[in-house]
């Protein structure tokens, strides 16, 4: 049991590191991308069909690539960013690239749910586009955005397990090295249970945060 804990804790730490850092960069990149997708659409506050079409195409194209293929495809870019293609830090690059377009679509959906009457009221009051985005759209959509962050975090957790298969470290790497190659079924089972527990914790925290924001 002690030997297993010694194996599990470092792998769990690597997974949490990958998920946390990847989620931070995903939000930083995906939130403005999702906002731009919404506000540049026709009949919105900054309509621009060219920008909207280009960004929408890029998002759809990236989302269509399976994660394993994406990891291999961007190996030169990953090496250029972090100097290596092996390890948890290197895995963060494809994780962010895979999750950002997904989160951008989540942001887009959340912002489109905002009552247009609220937006029109801010326009009538003379608010600038930036003020409408930061003081109307995003605050009004915050409960949905929090749920979107929750869903995206769970997706990144799943991606991180796949990254472990190709040298990304974390729980996925532990499951492959000991559960698959060494036929230690108990390691594989324990890894799956830990991943399930992490998903449950993330989902619970996200749901609670969204409920709190909904009451405000």
For CATH, the homologous superfamily is named as: MetI-like
First-to-last CA distance: 46 Å
**What is the SS-derived class?**
mainly alpha
Q: Based on the structure given, which CATH architecture is correct?
A: Orthogonal Bundle
Strand segment tally: 0
Transmembrane segments: 16-38, 50-74, 80-104, 145-167, 187-206
Keywords: Cell membrane, Membrane, Transmembrane, Transmembrane helix, Transport
Main location: membrane
InterPro entries: AA_ABC_Transporter_Permease (IPR051322), MetI-like (IPR000515), MetI-like_sf (IPR035906)
Outline the fold blueprint.
Elements: H1 2-39, H2 49-63, H3 67-73, H4 75-82, H5 88-112, H6 116-124, H7 129-165, H8 170-180, H9 185-215
Helix pairs in contact: 1-2, 1-5, 1-7, 1-8, 2-5, 4-5, 5-7, 7-8, 7-9, 8-9
Domain ABC transmembrane type-1: 12-206
Transmembrane segments: 16-38, 50-74, 80-104, 145-167, 187-206
Membrane topology: Multi-pass membrane protein
Protein architecture, described:
The chain is 84% helix and 0% strand. It is an all-alpha fold and 216 residues long. The protein has a single domain, classed as MetI-like fold. The longest helix has 38 residues, at 2-39. It starts with a helix and ends with a helix. The model has no long low-confidence stretch (mean pLDDT 87).
């Amino acid at each position: 049991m002690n030997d297993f804990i010694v194996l599990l804790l470092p792998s769990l730490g690597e997974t949490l590191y990958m998920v946390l850092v990847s989620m931070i960069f995903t939000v930083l990149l995906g939130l403005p991308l999702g906002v731009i997708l919404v506000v540049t659409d026709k009949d919105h506050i900054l309509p621009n069909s060219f920008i909207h079409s280009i960004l929408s195409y890029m998002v759809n194209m990236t989302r269509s690539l399976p994660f394993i293929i994406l990891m291999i495809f961007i190996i030169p870019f990953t090496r250029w960013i972090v100097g290596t293609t092996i390890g948890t830090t290197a895995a963060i690059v494809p994780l962010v690239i895979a999750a950002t377009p997904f989160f951008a679509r989540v942001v887009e959906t959340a912002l489109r749910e905002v009552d247009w009457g609220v937006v029109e009221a801010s326009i009538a009051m003379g608010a600038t586009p930036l003020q409408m985005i930061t003081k109307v759209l995003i605050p009004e959509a915050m409960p949905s955005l929090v749920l979107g962050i929750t869903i995206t975090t769970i997706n990144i957790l799943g991606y991180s397990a796949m990254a472990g298969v190709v040298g990304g470290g974390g729980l996925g790497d532990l499951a492959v090295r000991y559960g698959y190659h060494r036929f230690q079924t108990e390691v594989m089972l324990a890894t799956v249970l830990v991943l399930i527990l992490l998903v449950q914790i993330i989902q619970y925290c996200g749901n609670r945060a969204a409920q709190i924001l909904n009451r405000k």
